Amino acid sequence: MKQYSRIFTYLAPYKGKILLYFLFTLLSIVFSIVSIGMLMPFLQVIFTDTRPECVSCSPLTKTSGNFLIQSINDFLNRSLDSRGKIPTLAFICIFLVGFIFLKNLFLYLSYYTLNPLKNRVVNQLREELYDKVLRLPIGFFNEKRKGDLMSRMTNDVNEVESSVVGTLEGWIRDPMTILITLAALLLISYQLTLFIIVLIPVLGLVIGRITKSLKRHSQEVADKYGETLSTLDETLGGLRVIKAFNVEKILRGRFFRENKELLHSKNRISYRRDLASPLSEVMGVALFTAVLYVGGVLVLKNQFLQASAFLMFLGVFYNIINPAKALSTSFSNMRKGAAAIGRIEEVLRTPVTVDDNPGGKILDSFRDKIEFRNVSFSYEDTVILKEISFTVAKGKTIALVGSSGAGKSTLADLVPRFHDVTGGEVLIDGINIRDYSLHSVRQQMSIVTQEPILFNDTIANNIALGQPGASREQIMAAAQIANAHEFILKKEEGYDSNIGDRGSKLSGGERQRLTIARALLKNPPILILDEATSSLDTESERLVQDAINHMMQNRTSIVIAHRLSTIRHADEIIVLQKGRIVERGNHDTLMKLDGFYRKLVEMQEVR
């Protein structure tokens, strides 16, 4: 049960409602058993001339007094004496309907109490999983396929909802029903009840062996779901390339192969899961038949059991079969759901290596400089940066250049703490960046990336992402500086136009200008520009570069440059190669060195 501890933790604040559920369930079971017991005097009144009497010869019944049944019998005997059989029969029918009504009333109340708790558990699990995804460091997502994470947040959570939480009432109601019914059976005939108690574990052992492998097969199904979702995500994101290179057949074959493997895995788990219910029913009938035989022998030999008591015993005993069957189904579902919980727990237990440090110092403003002091960074066994040292003074622009894989983006990512250094330290205003609260550090920065990241919302809401309370005038002012105002006004709904999934309704240059407007509206003192113009055409690049130049005025900027012509006026250019600084200086100084930077410039000029 250890893997279900998180679910029990979610339920802990609702102990009062769980106790209420216990009470309603208990009353429902009691009235169910009593309603079955009412059939006994009904049969006696119709088919015999004897008066209703205590139906059991069990010593346990006699010592307990069986107060409820004896009281009913006394009432019926008085009714027979004063009114006769037909009015008494009517009383029995009224009592029977009343008990059935109370049974179902309390059953409904138990559902009414528990169902909101089950829904809250799933809701809280989904929220905690999403919150953890937001808090995990960027490096975690470099390892995990997006489709697999989506599968854990959708299919696995749904599996937990249907297989574990969906059968939550069965964990309580069915065992209670079995135990209370067994107690009632003990009062009627302890010999037959002991016989049943001996046989029930055999039923549980057989079903347990069948469901034992459900968890392993469920893990396979979950993994296959993740693979198919990843392939689907890659297909939707790369349709242009797929069609351009005529690789539809390859992608179709990959998806069909993964889907076929998923089908086989689902079939294997269905065979075993679906076997549990019919097998439990067959074994339940076999148990009922055994009770019929043993009880019949006791009645025929007049040993400890009367015929009327045996009939009542069978009626009450039948009350066990459905809960036992449901319990076996719940058990198999729990086994199946355990795999989904395991995959969810893997994400929830992943350590957050970039500590939020909410109790750290507040960086309320940037006053002096950003300093990289002997910074090194490694990812697993791969060294990305080695002993990097330089300073970015307030108001200055530092450009990072170098070939692909030199570590430019990783170095810039250390400032907003997308990663934490593995050696050395990054300082802002002389204080280690880890000593600040993460939120306050990022509040002082804006980032514009090579690929514009926009959301399926209006233009105004995308610009105001970093400043949710911004007025329309402020949004428009930021758009004007970013050279975006004119194209926005040409849209049918202007600033209220929806831009589609990831800004699909806009051109590349328009998307990038919106991200610049978003960064401008936030108005931070520190800017990080990661190749913001490298993927644009000449006209769009000019408009975006003009917007960037406006944005960089009076701000501290770290620029990752692919097109070196855009960073000629940087205060200092840091040239990286294989994670190390190989050259540094302004444009003129580096050109005179006739080194790696000059070769890069000349290669681009030749192009």
List the helices and strands and how they pair.
Layout: H1 5-11, H2 15-37, H3 39-47, H4 59-64, H5 67-82, H6 85-135, H7 138-143, H8 146-164, H9 168-188, H10 190-211, H11 214-237, H12 239-244, H13 248-300, H14 307-348, E1 369-379, E2 382-393, E3 397-402, H15 408-413, E4 423-428, E5 431-432, H16 438-443, E6 445-448, H17 459-463, H18 472-481, H19 485-489, H20 508-522, E7 526-530, H21 538-552, E8 556-560, E9 572-577, E10 580-585, H22 587-593, H23 596-606
Parallel strand pairs: 3-8, 3-9, 6-7, 7-8
Antiparallel strand pairs: 1-2, 1-4, 4-5, 9-10
Describe this structure in words.
The chain is an alpha/beta fold and 607 residues long. It has two domains: 2-348, ABC transporter type 1, transmembrane domain (ABC transporter transmembrane region fold); 355-441 and 569-607, 3-Layer(aba) Sandwich (Rossmann fold), CATH 3.40.50. It has helices at 5-11, 15-37, 39-47, 59-64, 67-82, 85-135, 138-143, 146-164, 168-188, 190-211, 214-237, 239-244, 248-300, 307-348, 408-413, 438-443, 459-463, 472-481, 485-489, 508-522, 538-552, 587-593, 596-606; strands spanning 369-379, 382-393, 397-402, 423-428, 431-432, 445-448, 526-530, 556-560, 572-577, 580-585. Strand 7, helix 21 (538-552) and strand 8 form a beta-alpha-beta unit. The two termini are 66 Å apart.
